[in-house]
């Protein structure tokens, strides 16, 4: 079998110059290293082989030889990216300043302030918070341009693939609402309200008044009422009633002004009716130049609005866009632009669209009709960077973004992103210049870009000095040590990487570098253990690839296949081994050397892995099942649930969208649409989808969605009873144990909240009977409320033993033991998942109780530095308040309110702190 495996590996057609995410970025000045491993790697492969039997030794050597065309992972070739977003040195102070800007600005500035918040919050990678900022910006927008851009942005966040002209039923994304100036009214969108004026068709025009002037166009004549034509504009009024010769003539020749006789008749009709609804497109296209020539604003607006309403496809938009620009038809241009934006990212592949949007000339023409803005090019450049960071389109869009930038943060963002793109393109001198521009505007993180560009240009010591100076001048943060580590070697490098992980355990590069170094030294088991540290709480394709690579070295083909399947779920376009081999090709190779499972066996394996809380393993099984049945929407839905648990929101949304697209029945499609709406913060609309699905066919998933949407509020007794009723309805419908276990678990939680502990216990026991392992946590809560702490502790211990991912179990078990044991459990929880905030809050509270205020603040600050969480900020603000530090209290409250402006406890604390501050000012 080994021979076949190696033969298959060698027979793969390597794909040169393919683009895609990689486990590392290659240093192009050492391109030969990308083809073959270093001598150190070859020695390490031999040392691994030497520890095995002779057959295993030859097998490992053969495997290394088979991987030579791809290159083994080499530590010197791993390189972290420069993130293309704003990264303040002190994110809390930056968020605080942003919130204060709202308090001192007019409402017209609010959309741009929300956009600033969005930019500051991007490093947090929290889709809910980012979407809230975009929604807030859209709600506050009043101009047609801002509304249509932000609506398209929200639609893009949902990965909506429906027709670009369709209304999703969401007021903030409604295409008709976006083309109406002014703030939007509360309630349903215009499409749902049907509040457009109804045009009643009549036979012909109203009876005309006898004309007193005749307009001649060629050989045709049109009788008009002089006063009606004069009312269309001041120039026409002056011509017909002023001192010109036309004012006393009964016939006026309009042959030379470039309109047809039909258009003249249309002008006469409009002068009487004020409507253009019955006119043909050709007539409308002639009316607009006439309206511009004679300054007929009413006629122009009517034609503009009518033409805009007729834009339905991307081809329409391309055909009419330049005409709208030529005639300064603002609404027509807006309608065309809306189509381009609602078709993103596909529209950026259309050369006609890119010519209109990306060039300097196109931007100037857009500016002439009020449709060139920072927010427009911000959206376009983000989409283009995600599609292909190195493309000329991306460069042009970022250049337009920099031209539109006005405030400091806008310039910082545009210059920094240009630096990132130039760095990716290998244009290092230009990258350094752009990064230096951003740094001069106050973006200190761009200095890391300056250092990287210098390093790429061969100035390693200068790059080291750059980062060394940054560390000495500012409070150190994780990315500073990470960047400096690139420019030093040996023990100093490892110390910097350790400092990086201590200050910011979410950065993946230190784990990857340490893992590859261990593998180079022949300690592959230790390398896998190191990369597992980051994969426990942050799953990414590059780390999964690295673990799969190590699995190949130790001939763990099943482990390698699991990880490759999982990473292909996260990124279906991922290219492995220096960007040479598509992940799906690697799957085909590995499939031949592991046991093939039938569909029924896959379901059993999925059940086992789901029950053991092995989310990556479950994801791999679902990927395998979808390879056999790609059109099964239920499996896509399962996939989305797993991705959400792994905090891979974008991939989860893609799976939900595919589930919706593959649905064979309307009631299924409505459920998946409901989950999409729910996951993007549209609870009421999700509830409506669930109700509609139930009206077609009662199903478990429809009732379960309804229960989720109903429970997503503060539940009183009556509401809780309603949720219980809906969950019980769900349990009467056909489903499998995986989902019914979740429903029973949720039902138990509602009973606990209602103090119905016996009923809750019954639900949790039933859930455990069908191996819903997480029900141990609910059962432990029941025992705890009955003051049976030992039993509660025992339940959580069972969960820890069963669950593959058990950081939350350690955290929860800490509530059911004494302080010393709780500290141990919380320390383990932090070690397994440093992103969990409760352990920091608990330790800080204990320190505060022991009157160790400085240590308590330091414990919270440690977590806030890499995860500025609402609860952490609120607690630190409360601590500062208790210590009489009003300034720090205000700062932390303001930062917390950026994350959630409606957080009641923080609002109360902020109000009290403001009163104290005002009193102190009066006294002083």
């Amino acid at each position: 079998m080994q021979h076949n495996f190696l033969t298959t590996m060698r027979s793969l057609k390597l794909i040169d110059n393919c683009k895609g995410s990689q486990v590392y970025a290659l240093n192009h000045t050492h391109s030969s290293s990308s083809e073959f491993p270093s001598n150190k790697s070859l020695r390490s492969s031999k040392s691994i082989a030497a520890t095995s039997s002779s057959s295993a030794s030859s097998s490992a050597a053969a495997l290394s030889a088979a991987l030579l065309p791809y290159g083994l992972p080499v530590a010197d070739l791993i390189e972290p990216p420069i993130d293309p977003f704003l990264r303040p040195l002190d994110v809390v102070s930056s968020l605080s300043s942003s919130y204060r800007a709202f308090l001192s600005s007019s409402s017209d500035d609010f959309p741009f302030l929300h956009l600033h918040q969005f930019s500051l919050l991007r490093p947090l990678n929290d889709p809910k918070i980012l979407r809230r900022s975009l929604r807030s910006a859209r709600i506050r927008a009043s101009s047609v341009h801002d509304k249509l851009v932000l609506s398209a942005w929200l639609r893009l966040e949902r990965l909506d693939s429906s027709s670009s002209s369709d209304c999703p039923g969401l007021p903030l994304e409604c295409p008709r609402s976006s083309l109406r100036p002014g703030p939007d009214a509360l309630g349903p969108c215009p499409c749902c309200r049907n509040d457009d004026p109804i045009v009643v068709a009549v036979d012909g025009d109203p009876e005309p008044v006898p004309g007193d002037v005749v307009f001649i166009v060629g050989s045709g004549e049109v009788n008009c009422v002089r006063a009606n034509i004069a009312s269309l504009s001041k120039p026409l009024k002056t011509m017909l009633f002023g001192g010109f010769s036309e004012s006393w003539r009964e016939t006026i020749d309009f042959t030379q002004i470039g309109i047809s006789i039909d258009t003249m008749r249309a002008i006469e009709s409009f002068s009487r009716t004020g409507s253009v609804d019955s006119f043909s497109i050709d007539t409308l296209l002639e009316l607009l130049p006439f309206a511009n020539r004679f300054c007929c604003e009413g006629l122009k607006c009517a034609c503009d609005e009518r033409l805009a309403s007729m834009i339905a496809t991307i081809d329409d938009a391309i055909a009419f866009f330049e005409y709208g620009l030529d005639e300064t038809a603002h609404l027509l241009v807006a309608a065309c632009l809306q189509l381009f934006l609602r078709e993103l990212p596909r529209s950026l592949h259309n050369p006609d669209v890119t010519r209109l949007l990306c060039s300097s000339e196109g931007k100037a023409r857009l500016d002439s009709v009020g449709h060139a803005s920072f927010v427009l090019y911000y959206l376009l450049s983000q989409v283009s960077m995600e599609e292909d960071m190195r493309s000329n389109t991306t460069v042009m869009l970022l250049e337009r973004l920099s031209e539109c930038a006005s405030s400091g943060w806008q310039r910082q963002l545009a210059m920094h992103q240009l630096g990132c793109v130039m760095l990716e393109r290998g244009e290092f001198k230009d990258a350094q210049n752009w990064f230096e521009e951003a740094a001069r505007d106050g973006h200190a993180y761009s200095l890391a870009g300056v250092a990287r560009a210098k390093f790429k240009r061969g100035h390693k010591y200068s790059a080291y000095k750059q980062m060394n100076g940054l560390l000495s001048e500012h409070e150190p943060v994780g990315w500073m040590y990470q960047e400096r580590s690139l420019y030093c070697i040996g023990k100093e490098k490892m110390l910097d990487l350790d400092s990086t992980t201590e200050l910011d355990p979410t950065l993946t590069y230190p784990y990857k570098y340490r893992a590859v170094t261990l593998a180079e030294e022949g300690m592959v088991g230790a390398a896998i253990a190191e990369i597992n540290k980051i994969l426990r709480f942050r799953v990414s394709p590059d780390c999964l690839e690295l673990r799969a690579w190590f699995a190949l070295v130790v001939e763990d083909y099943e482990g390698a296949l699991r990880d490759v399947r999982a990473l292909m779920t996260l990124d279906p376009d991922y290219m492995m081994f220096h960007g040479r081999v598509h992940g799906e090709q690697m799957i085909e190779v590995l499939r031949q050397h592991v046991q093939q499972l039938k569909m029924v066996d896959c379901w059993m394996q999925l059940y086992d892995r789901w029950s053991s809380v092995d989310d990556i393993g479950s994801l791999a099984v679902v990927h395998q099942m979808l390879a056999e049945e790609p059109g099964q929407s239920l499996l896509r839905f399962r996939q989305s649930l797993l991705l959400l648990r792994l905090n891979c929101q974008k991939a989860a949304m893609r799976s939900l969208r595919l589930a919706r697209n593959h649905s064979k029945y309307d009631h299924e499609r409505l459920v998946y649409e409901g989950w999409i709406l729910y996951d993007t913060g549209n609870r009421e609309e999700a509830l409506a989808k669930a109700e509609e699905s139930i009206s077609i066919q009662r199903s478990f998933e429809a009732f379960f969605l309804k229960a989720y949407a109903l429970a997503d509020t503060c539940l009183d007794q009556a509401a809780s009873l309603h949720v219980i009723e809906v969950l019980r309805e769900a349990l009467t419908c056909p489903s499998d144990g995986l989902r019914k276990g979740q429903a029973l678990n949720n039902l138990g939680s509602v009973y606990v909240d209602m103090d119905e502990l016996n009923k809750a216990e019954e639900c949790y026991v039933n859930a455990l009977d069908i191996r819903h392992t997480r029900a141990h946590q609910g059962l432990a809560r029941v025992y705890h409320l009955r003051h049976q702490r030992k039993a509660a502790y025992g339940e959580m211990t069972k969960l820890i033993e069963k669950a593959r991912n058990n950081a939350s179990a350690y955290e929860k078990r800490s509530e059911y033991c004494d302080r010393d044991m709780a500290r141990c459990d919380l320390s383990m929880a932090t070690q397994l998942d440093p992103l969990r905030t409760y352990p920091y809050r608990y330790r800080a509270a204990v320190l505060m109780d022991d009157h160790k205020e400085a240590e308590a603040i330091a414990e919270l600050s440690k977590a806030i530095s890499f995860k500025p969480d609402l609860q952490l900020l609120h607690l630190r603000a409360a601590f500062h308040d208790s210590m009489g530090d009003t300034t720090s209290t205000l700062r932390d409250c303001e930062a917390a309110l950026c994350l959630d402006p409606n957080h009641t406890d923080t609002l109360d604390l902020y109000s009290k702190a403001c009163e104290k501050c005002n009193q102190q000012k009066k006294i002083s």
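Residues 26 and 77 are 6 Å apart (CA to CA). The two ends are 84 Å apart (CA to CA).
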